Amino acid sequence: GRPQPVRPIFPLTDTVVPKAHSATNNHTPLLHPLPKIGGSMAPSRRAGRLLFLPLALVHLLSSCPHTTSGAPNTAPLSVLCNGAVYGAGDPFAESLAYVLADLLAATPQSRARDAYTISPYPNAFAYGHAACRAGLTGVDCASCLGSAVSQMNATCGHAVGARAVLVDCSVRYEQYAFVA
């Protein structure tokens, strides 16, 4: 045998769905009925089932944590610090300032809300990564990252490497290249 055609999961009988225009006839859509899936349903029962699907989707999307709006959750899950520190006047301070500023600007603007960066100063490189939960707006992402950097600075001071993982975002910097 021949493989059996895949049937739709939802019982949408007697419904027409527009088919994509062909290259030879792009003026009117071709309509094809969906295959029947068993016996006939009473019209009121069919309408109830068709109404149920959009309502179920609205409920699912309204309860999904990836579509929430409002202030980001900046509760810390962990803040880790490298034991080594840099001193006053160390070129690493300038590299770190560049990396953190770049991450705070670039991550909220990126589509995936995820960014890596490296400082352009060859005498003391700094590397960084930041990410926000995919459902956050750019403004909420920026707010969360600002909180993460503040928590890192308050906890780690002049550490040559640190990571802050908050509920809705994370930031990490090191003096060596890494993959998060």
From TrEMBL:
This is Gnk2-homologous domain-containing protein. Its main location: other. It is found in: Cell junction, Plasmodesma; Cell membrane. GO terms for biological process: defense response to bacterium; defense response to fungus; killing of cells of another organism. GO terms for molecular function: D-mannose binding. Belongs to the cysteine-rich repeat secretory protein family. Plasmodesmata-located proteins (PDLD) subfamily. It comes from Aegilops tauschii subsp. strangulata. Pfam families: Stress-antifung (PF01657). InterPro entries: Cell2Cell_Antifungal (IPR051378), GNK2 (IPR002902), GNK2_sf (IPR038408). The keyword Signal applies. PANTHER family: ANTIFUNGAL PROTEIN GINKBILOBIN-2-LIKE, GNK2-HOMOLOGOUS DOMAIN-CONTAINING PROTEIN. It comes from the Eukaryota. It is a single-pass type I membrane protein. Keywords: Antibiotic, Antimicrobial, Cell junction, Disulfide bond, Fungicide, Host-virus interaction, Lectin, Mannose-binding, Plant defense, Repeat, Signal. GO terms for cellular component: plasma membrane; plasmodesma.
